[in-house]
Amino acid sequence: MVTHVRAEARGDERGALLAFLEEQRGGIRRAVLGLTEEQARSRPSASELSLGGLLKHVVEMERTWIARARQEPPAVHRDESNWHECFQLVGDETVASQLALWEEAAADTEKLIRSAPSLDDTFPLPEAPWFPPDERVSLRWVCLHLIRETARHAGHADVIRESLDGKTAFELVALERQRSEQAG
Fold it and tell me: Across-strand partners of 122?
């Protein structure tokens, strides 16, 4: 990406993981910066992906993994009948509503990771065809998975945004800085 992740305090593994996750979140947030709802919902390629849909997916994905880590049910249950909706803004969902949910999810993630006794703490994965039976993963694994998944979709978001209006990641970083300076 085009932003720099500051070095963590010596020995602060949690801070490093959270900083890299936040950097990848920023790539997706910038990809929707200044778009109309219509643009965010549009699919400018042969793919079914839209920026609004990608945003919704990463928000839902992070919320689901944090719920799993807490051994709670996810906020939204997905199965074959509604899986497609995790990549689409439906009904009254908007970019703004998804960004607000993501802000809450990010705070929940940070609270869980910062307060856990150890990143080596594990939890069981639910039964699902895509998970090995009786598998457990650690909080460190969850952090790495969130970074990987968010980074993957941040790359998709870069391509989709550039396809929509030609804006590159560098231009979006500059636009974000400009708006931040104007706000305050």
Answer: 138
